[in-house]
Design goal:
With 202 residues, the chain is of the alpha/beta class. It has a single domain, classed as Rossmann fold (3-Layer(aba) Sandwich). Helix content is 35%, strand content 25%. The protein is built from eight helices and eight strands. It has an eight-stranded mixed sheet with strand order 3-2-1-4-5-8-6-7, sandwiched between helices. β2, α3 and β3 form a beta-alpha-beta unit.
Length: 202
């Protein structure tokens, strides 16, 4: 998918050679494999679905089988330079908790997610249907997604939780969207950090 390749390229541009990376909801490990090939990262994946764990291992990825809803209690503070959740945040029930955990175990968090306020999604709802698109490919009855939020919603949550947005990009079909991203972009990608005051207290 075009937006997925763009996602990978942007994430790689935010990571330095040889850094420590944790990929949450790593699927078949393709993102970590890409980062190993392009940035020589020291990477681990986290995945709960057994068949995806097997696929990650087949891709040469070191993977931990964990339920992310239970947090990352077995991982030390600041164990990683970057903790990534690519197109999986919308499938998490404990959204605030997992963002806090990402910034506990990592210096930076990188998240991407489908934007529910995208104009095509709005059009589908106006026409009486839940949206189905490249970024939201499932039907309403079999979707793994449990949170349907927008770019504006996410930025409000970051402000509420004291999460620093270091960089945010929005795109549609692999093209960067600069004007009205909450309306025109299908996918958003953010690089996040801890509030320095909160980090010092911790």
């Amino acid at each position: 998918m075009a937006y997925q390749r763009y996602d990978y390229e942007v994430i790689a541009s935010w990571i330095q050679q040889g850094e420590r990376v944790l990929d949450l909801g790593c699927g078949d490990g393709s993102l970590l494999k890409y980062l190993q090939e392009t940035r020589q990262v020291r990477g681990y994946g986290v995945e709960n679905e057994p068949e995806r764990v097997v696929a990650s291992i087949a891709n040469g990825i070191c993977v931990l089988q964990l339920d992310l809803e239970q947090g990352l209690a077995g991982i030390d503070d600041n164990a990683f330079d970057h903790v990534i959740m690519s197109l999986s945040l919308q499938a998490m029930r404990n959204t605030q908790g997992i963002l806090a955990e990402m910034l506990r175990v990592g210096r930076e968090a990188v998240v991407s997610f489908p934007n529910f306020a995208y104009w095509r999604h709005r059009q589908a709802i106006i026409n009486g249907h839940m949206p189905v698109s490249e970024s939201l490919p499932h039907q309403w009855y079999n979707t793994p997604n449990v949170r349907f939020f927008t770019i504006a919603d996410f930025e409000s949550l970051c402000a509420q939780e004291g999460i620093v947005i270091r960089e945010g990009l929005a795109f549609d079909d692999g093209r960067l969207v600069l004007d009205e991203p909450n309306f025109m972009a299908s996918v958003a990608l953010y690089r996040l950090g801890r509030n320095s005051a909160c980090a010092e207290e911790g």
